[in-house]
Amino acid sequence: MLKGESPHETNLVSRVDVAFDMDGLLFDTEAMYARLANEAARPLGFAFTEQMILDTLGVNETDCNAYYGSRIPAYRAETFWPAYHAAADRYVAEHGAPQKPYLLETLQRMHAAGVRMAVVSASPRADVLRNLRSAGAETYFDAIVSGDMGLPGKPQPDMYLRGAALVGVPIGQCAVLEDSPHGLRAGRDAGAYTIMIPDLRPYTDELAPICDCVCLTLREAGEAILCR
């Protein structure tokens, strides 16, 4: 685990509650979704570049629509999203949502320690529930904040503030686990302690102002939280 100097370093009290991102953090779905997105887009006459995918990690559908619509003349949200969600539903029904290493082990340890947990995801609630149920992980979470709740999306702090409110704790008592710069910014601006577990986007020094801690796995992040 890599740790740097941060004004948040002393903000955590003896009890720590946790808000998790989902895609790329709990589930190894970012690369899978990128492939399925292009499979859905191809019959519609367009494609997403790798940079477009990276730029929209952690971004809700509304903000994705603005981003893609400004760059892809053929993009139509009303035809793309139904095709994409249908492809994702078929994949998870057949294969299950691919879990990140140590997912259930980490959730079980935190639950046993009395840690309250929320999922804060840019994905729609139906997708969050689909993936959690696929892994048998739904019961570990006290709250779900999803991208279709009408809140300003990441990197705005609103979703993480709502997550803290739903579990009934001050945001300064929360650790936010994220894999994307958008999510880290949201957690930082909300006032949480931020932990990055890199996925498609590696940790770089430019993320230091919004990242208190970098861990390689969920297990490592869980140990860092439980040992505080």
| Total number of helices | 9
Oligomer: single chain
Structural class: alpha/beta
SSE series? EEHHHHHEHEHEHEEH
Which regions have little confidence, pLDDT < 50, spanning 5+ residues?
A: 1-15
The biggest beta sheet is recorded as: 7 strands, mixed
Distance from N terminus to C terminus (CA atoms, Å) equals: 14 Å
Portion of residues within helices = 40-55%
Number of strands: 7
Mean pLDDT, all residues: 92
Range of strand content: 5-15%
Coarse shape: globular
User: How are strands sequenced across the largest beta sheet?
Assistant: 1-7-6-5-2-3-4
Q: C-alpha Rg, in Å?
A: 17 Å
Briefly summarize what is shown.
With 228 residues, the protein is α/β, with parallel strands linked by helices. It has helices at 30-41, 50-55, 61-69, 77-95, 103-112, 125-135, 158-167, 181-190, 218-226; strands at residues 2-3, 17-20, 117-120, 143-145, 174-178, 193-196, 213-214.
Describe what this molecule looks like in 3D.
By secondary structure, the protein is of the alpha/beta class. Helices cover 42% and strands 11% of the residues. It has nine helices and seven strands, in the order ββαααααβαβαβαββα. The chain has helices at 30-41, 50-55, 61-69, 77-95, 103-112, 125-135, 158-167, 181-190, 218-226; strands at 2-3, 17-20, 117-120, 143-145, 174-178, 193-196, 213-214. Strands 1-7-6-5-2-3-4 form a seven-stranded mixed beta sheet, with helices on one face. The longest helix has 19 residues, at 77-95. The radius of gyration is 17 Å and the shape is globular.
